């Protein structure tokens, strides 16, 4: 287990696969948020409040999904097995931009945390970057965000026939 | 007429029993992502992915830096694809030698080339063959366990190194050279590379680009990481940034943020009081002219460039006629990769090192995706998007008028030639042993670099 201490990020992903892919906790690399997220996952699922997210594809198709307060949007995509090809390739470790989502200005401004430099660095590599773009793995759902709509960039959709 | 209609009807009915079979050449990210898309968009297609080596994942295994393990999480998606019963990984098959493209086109309904870009571009300047002038691609292969690169002859018993090129590969090389070696011990870096790096005397690395800061090729994430490297200070040349301040606010966001980050650290360069032992020197507006040295490189001659053209992005470097010499006991060439023509029947542009294709279509029933088609640029997102698009295109165009033998036919050809194949479960034996060996050393895996040993384990 020395590996875990020395190599938190990697070992986390290893442990995650070991448990169950659909259950893995996508996470941020920021230590303080790691703590927050770590704490939230120890809660009983039943204690968590349900939240709804609607994903809107570029072709207008709307996909409704449910999650819990404390889930990231990536968690919700994974847990609901939402059909977004390639979404979350690095599993929430801030090393790709495949979980790029576009928010309305209103929702964007209401998001609980501001993007870190590292998140913005990854967004800079995304297609169709907008001023209200975020990475789904970095958005932790709160009760206030219940019912939000997010737009999935068309490049991910284009790939689907 | 009527008879023909009935015939057509029967034919179309019977095609339901015809299973489309596709062969993908190259088991890197482009191949796996294309396979994923093909399997998804067709309910009965069979996808075989051929790989020259006995092990899958291409540059995810052999290119991604060992200190970037998170990037390798994409492998979980590839493993999911590999678990599909309509998918087959067939390793240790050298297409072009063991089986030709023409043969594959006869036994499969369509062939997709995703074999990447395995050679590096040469500088073609005098002294390039001197000792310790190293191919950046081979250096990456050496520390990442590419079998053909495990014998790389490199001397790290020197203090100054230069890297020609400023892409993400160049940054990876610089970071591996400058990172405190203890930070690499728990990665999947090859043990022999770690051993040699632990005795490295490199203190100073220059990262040389022919154009200016506004055209820098590295991504901001790679730059930010190296700027924060423990025990290493990045020292910019103030003169390289003349006029950059005036332009920065006119740039689109990604370029603007990258440039702003450089400018921020530029200010810190001038107040250099830190006692760090290692230094990174990004140097702009210099082109290599000649490596100097008798047997081994001892310095590099650079031409001093200026930029011409009005548009920042299409500006090109022109020599001013002035030169600069930088001492270096080690030099890396990292100016990009090119593909090779693995089979004479593949339409190939030798000049740019790429398969000739129009939006992924090479010719009837032959396609290309990833770096072999687009050139060696972009991050995993770009390769993924491209591979998804080509996978979709292939499914749309698949001719399903007759049955083809697929894997059965391929096995026959390979068996006749006595070529052993490594299937996915065979690879899992290698994978397991690598992880076990890694565990003993406190790392995620210790890669096996000998192809014979791989085969021995896989075919046991």
The biggest chain-chain interface is: A-B, 37 and 35 residues
Silhouette of chain B: globular
Major sheet of chain A? 3 strands, mixed
Q: Which class of the largest domain in chain B in CATH terms?
A: Alpha Beta
Largest sheet, spatial ordering of strands of chain A: 2-1-5
How far the N terminus sits from the C terminus of chain A, by CA atoms, comes to 45 Å
CATH architecture of the largest domain in chain B: 3-Layer(bba) Sandwich
**Poorly predicted parts of chain B:** none
Overall helicity of chain B = 25-40%
Shape type of chain A: globular
Mean pLDDT of chain B: 94
Name of the top-level CATH class of the domain at 50-151 in chain A: Alpha Beta
Proper CATH architecture of the domain at 50-151 in chain A: Roll
**What kind of oligomer do you see?**
heterodimer
Radius of gyration of chain A: 15 Å
Describe this structure in words.
The complex is a heterodimer of chains A (161) and B (460). Chain A contains 7 helices and 5 strands, in the order αααββαβααββα. By secondary structure, chain A is an alpha+beta fold. Chain A has a domain at 50-151: Beta-grasp domain (Ubiquitin-like (UB roll), Roll). In chain A, strands 2-1-5 form a 3-stranded mixed beta sheet, covered by helices on one side. The longest helix of chain A is centred in the N-terminal third of the chain and has 12 residues, at 8-19. Helices cover 35% and strands 20% of the residues of chain B. Chain B has 2 domains: 21-118 and 338-422, 3-Layer(aba) Sandwich (Rossmann fold); 123-335, FAD/NAD(P)-binding domain (3-Layer(bba) Sandwich). Chain B has 460 residues and is of the alpha/beta class. Chain B is built from 16 helices and 20 strands. The longest helix of chain B is centred in the middle third of the chain and has 18 residues, at 253-270. Chain B is globular. The model of chain B has no long low-confidence stretch (mean pLDDT 94). In chain B, helix 2 (29-41) crosses helix 13 (380-397). Classes of the chains: A alpha+beta (161), B alpha/beta (460). At the A-B interface, helix 1, helix 2, helix 6 and helix 7 of A face helix 2, helix 4, helix 9, helix 11 and helix 13 of B.
């Amino acid at each position: 287990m020395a590996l875990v201490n020395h190599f938190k990020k990697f070992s986390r992903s290893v442990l995650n696969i070991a448990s169950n892919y659909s259950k893995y906790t996508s996470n941020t690399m920021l230590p303080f948020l790691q703590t927050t997220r770590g704490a939230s996952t120890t809660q009983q699922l039943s204690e968590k409040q349900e939240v709804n997210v609607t994903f809107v594809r570029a072709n207008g198709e709307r996909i409704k999904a449910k999650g819990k307060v404390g889930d990231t949007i990536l968690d919700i995509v994974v847990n609901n097995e939402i059909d977004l090809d390639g979404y979350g390739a690095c599993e929430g470790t801030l090393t790709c931009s495949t979980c790029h989502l576009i928010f309305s200005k209103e929702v964007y401004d209401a998001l609980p945390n501001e993007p870190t430099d590292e998140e913005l660095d990854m967004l800079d590599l995304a297609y169709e970057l907008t001023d209200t773009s975020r990475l789904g793995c970095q958005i932790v759902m709160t009760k206030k965000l219940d019912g939000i709509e997010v737009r999935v960039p068309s490049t991910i959709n284009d790939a689907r026939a | 007429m009527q008879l023909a209609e009935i015939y057509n009807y029967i034919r179309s009915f019977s095609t339901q029993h015809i299973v489309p079979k596709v062969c993908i050449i190259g088991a890197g990210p482009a191949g796996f992502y294309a396979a994923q898309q093909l399997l998804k968009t067709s309910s009965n297609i069979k996808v075989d992915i051929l790989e020259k080596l006995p092990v899958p994942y291409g540059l995810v295994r052999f290119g991604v830096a060992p200190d970037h393990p998170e990037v390798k999480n994409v492998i979980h998606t590839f493993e999911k694809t590999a678990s599909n019963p309509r998918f087959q990984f067939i390793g240790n098959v050298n297409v072009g030698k063991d089986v030709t493209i023409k043969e594959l086109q006869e036994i499969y309904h369509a062939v997709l080339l995703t074999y990447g870009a395995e050679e590096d571009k040469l500088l073609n300047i005098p002294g390039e063959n001197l000792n310790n002038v190293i191919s950046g691609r081979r250096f990456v292969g050496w520390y990442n366990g590419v079998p053909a690169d495990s014998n790389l002859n490199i001397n790290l018993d020197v203090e100054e190194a230069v890297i020609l090129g400023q892409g993400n590969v160049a940054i990876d090389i610089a970071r591996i050279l400058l990172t405190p070696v203890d930070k690499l011990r728990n990665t999947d870096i090859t043990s022999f590379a770690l051993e040699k790096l632990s005795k490295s005397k490199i203190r100073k690395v220059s990262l040389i680009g022919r154009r200016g800061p506004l055209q820098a090729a590295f991504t901001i994430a790679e730059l930010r990481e190296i700027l924060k490297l423990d025990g290493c200070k990045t020292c910019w040349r103030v003169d390289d940034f003349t006029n950059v301040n005036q332009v920065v606010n006119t740039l689109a966001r990604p370029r603007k943020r990258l440039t702003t980050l450089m400018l921020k650290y530029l200010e810190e360069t001038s107040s250099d009081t830190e006692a760090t032992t290692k230094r990174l020197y990004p140097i702009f507006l210099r082109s290599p002219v000649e490596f100097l040295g008798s047997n081994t490189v001892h310095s590099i001659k650079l031409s001093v460039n200026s930029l011409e053209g009005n548009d920042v992005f299409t500006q090109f470097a022109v020599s001013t006629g002035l030169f600069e010499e930088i001492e270096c006991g080690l030099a890396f060439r990292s100016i990009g990769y090119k593909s090779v023509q693995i089979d004479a029947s593949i339409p190939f542009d030798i000049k740019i090192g790429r398969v000739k294709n129009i939006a992924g279509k090479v010719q009837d029933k032959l396609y290309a995706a990833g770096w072999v088609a687009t050139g060696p640029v972009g991050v995993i997102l770009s390769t993924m998007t491209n591979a998804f698009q080509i996978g979709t295109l292939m499914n749309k165009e698949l001719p399903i008028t007759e049955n083809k033998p697929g894997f059965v036919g391929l096995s026959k050809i390979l068996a006749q030639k006595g070529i052993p194949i490594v299937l996915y479960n065979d690879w899992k034996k290698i994978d397991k042993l690598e992880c076990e060996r890694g565990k003993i050393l406190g790392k995620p895996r210790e890669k096996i670099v000998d192809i014979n040993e791989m085969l021995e384990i896989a075919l046991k």
